[in-house]
Design goal:
Elements: E1 5-9, E2 15-19, E3 26-28, H1 31-41, E4 44-48, H2 53-65, E5 70-73, H3 80-90, E6 100-103, E7 106-109, H4 111-120, H5 123-130
Helix pairs in contact: 1-3
């Protein structure tokens, strides 16, 4: 017998998975699983800090292109520091963990990678393939 599951973001920042056979059983998962599920369920996700100028550049570029990304402002999220630690693990060469842009369930990178892809002409096709842009 298959068991249906529902997921949502909990008040503490974790993702709650509810097993439909046992509706009283709710399991909150950690920040790694939170990031994984958010990027798996949304075509474009941006992890940001509200006062970060580079985050603003990344979000505005996506908005200008017509993308409506899911935006997680880590400084306003209860699990922000934990999620930021997970994002730091994805970054290489001392790169800052925010903004962190995910397209099609994969880590694209920060603002430098986003702008580079746009200048090279590869960003729009990438966004279209992920379902984040319908032009």
């Amino acid at each position: 017998m298959q068991v249906a599951k529902k997921s949502g973001i909990g008040m503490d920042g974790g993702i709650a998975s509810v097993n439909s056979d046992t509706p009283d059983a709710v399991k909150l998962v950690g920040p790694s699983e939170t990031v994984r599920q958010l990027v798996a369920c949304n075509p474009v996700v941006v992890f940001s800090m509200s006062g970060c100028c580079m985050c603003t550049v990344a979000k505005r570029l996506l908005f200008i292109l017509g993308v409506g990304p899911v935006i997680i402002e880590l400084d306003k999220h209860s699990a922000g520091p934990d999620v930021q630690a997970v994002l730091q693990e994805l970054c290489s060469d001392g790169q800052k963990p925010v903004p962190a842009v995910f397209v099609g369930g994969k880590f694209l990178g920060g603002v430098e990678t986003l702008v580079t892809c746009h200048i090279k002409g590869s960003l729009v096709p990438l966004l279209k393939d992920a379902g984040g842009l319908w032009l």
